[in-house]
Every structure is written in structure tokens, then in C-alpha cells.
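[Automated response] Your request has been received and processed.

Submitted sequence:
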Amino acid sequence: MRGEGHVPSPYVEREVNVMNETPKVHPAGETCLVVDFGNSISLEINGQVQALRSYLESKNIQGIMEIMPTYRSLAVYFEPVRSDLDRIKSAISEGLASLGESASIGTKEAVIPVCYGGEHGPDLPSVARHHGITEEEVVARHSGKSCYCYMLGFTPGFSYLGGMDESIATPRLETPRELIPAGSVGIAGKQTGIYPIDSPGGWQLIGRTPLAMYDPSKDPATLLDAGLWVRFRPIDQDEYDEIQAKVRQGSYALEIVEKGEMS
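Generated structure:
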């Protein structure tokens, strides 16, 4: 289960000067171009990724099927028959030239309600023991700091969230679970994330959200997106049940606020 949430060792989350690394464009097969911005994970680099993504999406170029951001690169998928490859390459060059020296990190923050512990967070006690603190303190630290969604992957809509309070960073489980319920919130090293569908996995589960993180009947199908900030809001079982009922009825609206203005 190393593929799930695994960040290769060179990619350490740290501050870097993105201007010291020149973006490189290279093909990945016959239907994709990849723009690499560097070999480090940082808000600055990911801001450049998101800025180029926004630029290309605004151009509405014929033949482009999907634009997929990662921690430090942008993949542009296209249809060879319908696409003008020179136009796509030109647009990428124009976009890179327009980025300037400053990163473009968004300020929108999604508020995700989470019921911590119990059946929803079976690993919360072990995470607390690992750090010699109470379960309540783990919850306070996990929900007390905004996290940044660098990318989606592993399964549809799985959010890789950086910026978690490092004092609760915890290794993955030695033996992954065969089935983790959708909505489960976990910790793996310095990362936290939300399982969007029932799936196997090895992250330490500390809670669960009643929100539907992935719904293929909707457009977009994923509740979160790369470039969005996330703040977890602790709730009890009664509120969990209330929100879950609203989600099933289609009457629950995701709360989006300006970063730092969580109600």
C-alpha cells in the first residue's frame, strides 16, 4: 500500500525559491504534456502550478481533455486528432511567461465537519498515545490549523492535505486495512487526508466526515479541489447524523469561507 499517499523521499515539504528552478515541459506519451516546476513540495511551487492551470482553463483550447495538477507539476491531457499541439505548447509558454515572480495561492477555505474518535476514528487513541497527549488535544491540533489541498489522487477525490500541525504527525499503520469507510479522515506522516470512497488504506483514522467527498452523478464529482484550503470543524454524533441526512437529501451546501474567517 505504499502507493497510497506515498511521497517519494526527494519531495520534502519545505520553503523554496521557485524562481531558482526553471519549469520544464516534456511529453508523457502521445496524449499528455507535463510541466515540471521543481523537485520540492511547497506552497510557492504549487501556487505556480495552480496559476498555470487557471491560465490554460481560461483559454478553452480545443482538444484539451483534462488539466491535472500535482504537488509540483501540471499534466495537460489532449486528444491528438482534435488538438493543435503547437497551440497547446504555445499556450503553456504564454502561461509560464505570465506567471511572474509571485505564487498564486488561493484564499478560499472549505469547512469540513468531522466526528472524531469512536467508530469513526478508531486510531485516535493510538495517535494520542504515540504523542503522549490526550485525544482531545489531538482533535484540537488537527482542527486548529488550516491545511492546503496540494492535489487529488490515489482514488477519485482523495485529498492530499499539507500544513497539518506537525506535532501530531504519525506514521502509517504497519498493516493497512482492507476496507476504510468513505469520509474517513486520516493521518500519514505530516499529511492528513479524506478517503472519498470505501477503499483499502494504511492511514491512521482519527475521524469521519458525513459529507460526500465524491459523487460521480455531480459535476464536478469531487467536493474538494487542488488549490483549496481546508479547515476541519469538530462535531458530535447528533450533528453528524443531521448533516448526513441533509447530504442524502441534497440540501447540504459546503461551507466556503475566506481563509481565517471560519465561523
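Summary generated for your ticket: The helical segments are 43-59, 85-98, 124-131, 135-143, 237-249. The chain is about 25% helix and 25% strand.
If you did not submit this request, please reply to this message.
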